[in-house]
């Protein structure tokens, strides 16, 4: 590696970022059936709500493949963070975790884990924004993966693709509210993996509804 | 620890067999779970399809296991939360025998077979769960009932009553390892001093090899030394109780305790090999047992033996029923439970006879010299009467000189009446057919009893066969048992003369109504007071009792009345059918337990069960008990050539 490349801070792509981008180079064919898709359902707990300043305290995710949640592919990581977020700690009761991993380790593991899967989360935009900041030092500026926000998916399945978001009560589509609506036993503790699990349960239920509405391909799902 | 795996584990551990896993195994299983969501109308697997590499647990929703038959679809099982199904993959790796239809949106946890196989190997409770056929829709060709019975024990709710745990676990036996001993030539006073210093109520007298010669207790010091004014300088061997009854520790607490109850021992000496020709290694005293248990058999029997007050006896018998309930709920072995209850009932009869004799003594001088034997018949005769259901008993007395015969008849009839009155007052129900010791027909001298049995054997009319089913199970409770032995000898002689009698009995044994209908559902009563209830006595227990009795008579077995013990013995005599007989015995124990629990629950005879009120496990367990019946009936059919008979 040349020293000036390293000096152009953030632009240099580390090897694991490189290989991550390579597996994402091939787009998913639009007609692929939803059963054949691989989803990563994720959630994060952060030091705050400002993606520019705040950092990831914990990351939890699971995989859905062939329409099944695979528990053995669930992960839970606690990356190191310099910023101490006292407020968030209070909200989530996230006490100091012993086995934190370095940001370097986290970045590698994270990209290796998500690969070219479809990223799913509730208000997942925020999580991805903050995760992107984690990945910036390693040369990644965006996530090429397809993304599904269960917040929008739920609204779309109820109100149709042309729904006017300004006329929809957002609080009816919070994760808690949706869990209640779809009879998912909520977890009393807010943890990244706990919420990811709830989101995964919500998502497999939403996929059934989508199927009934004739949404059976990747193309139709991501529209 | 991964929060997600934890949540899955939290759910699983609420249900068997996962509730039997330790934390580590549970984590391993939870880690491998795959979660699937199915909408109403979908099918998870289809009949005839090869088994998947997973079995399933229903997290939420409803799934029907359906069998497609020529007549259309038959629902075999309805699964709801926590039910385990599709386990054929786990056991037999055969194609599915049923189709799983989702009737309400369902969340299903799939558990890969390979993770579980490892656990099956090391966790016997989990293996039992599956072996017993408790998983939904699991068709096990031949149920192993001993497993079913054991497994059932695993599902009991912990009652938190540790005083009774002592029965199921011999490691909890409180045995005094340090036993106070002295030599046979030590003086009585030396022995008393040793006891006083050690603050114990007994001392064992041993020879130089520490083999037990006798035992001396506080009571002995009172009654045999002080009361008689014997010199305390005499050697202790002159006043000790000998020989001592000994057992070995590994006999298990149930057996040890039964020995104490039967022999009315306050102290039981344990030796290395269980005989008095080996060193003393421990002592169990009833005092320890009294302290650890409120309603213990020893306490109740002791109390019964010390009262002739009928009101008091009734109270004690009621307490015994409380104790029975604990035993049944705590899955104490049926042999122990039945023995204890029989002993209690027998003590009541003994006391009742005592009351009767006392009351009649002045009116019938000399009559108490006539040998007699009080017989229990039917279930009490078989030592199977747990509840106070109908009394069946009789009196057998020795033949007297002609001049005395009228007087004897009157005396024993009066004695029978006295006994029956006491028993009724103690809460027993009278026999509707009046087969009781207050019926002149059933209070007879030996010669008449012999005639009765000869008549039944020679002319097996339907009525005679009905009587046989009750009278052939007679058991001497109190009195001169040699009279009963002579009667038994007579019966076998008569049967040898007329072998065909057994065929008639066999025919009778096959006439019991079947337990299951064409669609493997319980055959319930169609009309009457017990409409829609299952008659566990007539449909499940009587066939087994009848079959056991028939086989017992055909082998001329003596002294074994208990149905499950009869089957145990038959298993020994006929090793080629050992498995079947053992299963039949276990089945009978399970049925006794179910009936007694039902009876206690509803304060009735427990004879009629409502199949709808039974839990899934109980229903399965009950059905499993039926399978030995039909197999036994086939054997009987061939052995006693009943097909020929029926024509």
How is this structure best described in words?
The complex is a heterodimer of chains A (223) and B (647). Chain A is an alpha/beta fold and 223 residues long. Chain A is built from 9 helices and 5 strands. In chain A, strand 2 (56-65) and strand 3 form a beta hairpin. The longest helix of chain A has 21 residues, at 192-212. The N and C termini of chain A lie far apart (41 Å). Chain B is α+β, with helices and mostly antiparallel strands and 647 residues long. Chain B has 4 domains: 2-142, Sandwich (Jelly Rolls); 181-285, CBS-domain, CATH 3.10.580; 297-445, Beta Polymerase, domain 2; 505-639. Chain B contains 24 helices and 17 strands. In chain B, the strands form 5 sheets. In chain B, strands 1, 2, 3, 4 and 5 form a 5-stranded antiparallel beta sheet that branches. The longest helix of chain B is centred in the middle third of the chain and has 27 residues, at 334-360. The radius of gyration of chain B is 29 Å and the shape is globular. Mean pLDDT of chain B is 83; it is low at 134-173. The chains are: A alpha/beta (223), B alpha+beta (647). Chains A and B meet through strand 3 and helix 8 of A and helix 1, strand 1 and strand 5 of B. Strand 3 of chain A pairs antiparallel with strand 1 of chain B.
The structural class of chain B is: alpha+beta
Helix count of chain B equals 24
Biggest sheet of chain A, strands in spatial order? 3-2-1-4-5
The number of helical runs of chain A is 9
State the end-to-end CA separation of chain B.
Answer: 73 Å
Query: For the residues shown, what is the average pLDDT of chain B?
Result: 83
Structural Rg of chain A = 18 Å
* Poorly predicted sequence stretches spanning 5 or more consecutive residues of chain A: none
User: Distance N terminus to C terminus of chain A?
Assistant: 41 Å
Number of domains of chain B: 4
Largest sheet of chain B: 5 strands, antiparallel
β-strand percent of chain A reads 15-25%
> CATH H level of the largest domain in chain B: which superfamily?
Beta Polymerase, domain 2
Backbone structural class of chain A: alpha/beta
Per CATH, what is the topology of the largest domain in chain B?
A: Beta Polymerase, domain 2
Low-pLDDT residue intervals, each spanning 5 or more residues of chain B: 134-173
Shape of chain A: globular
Assign a percent range to the helix content of chain A.
25-40%
Named CATH architecture of the largest domain in chain B = 2-Layer Sandwich
The count of strands of chain A amounts to 5
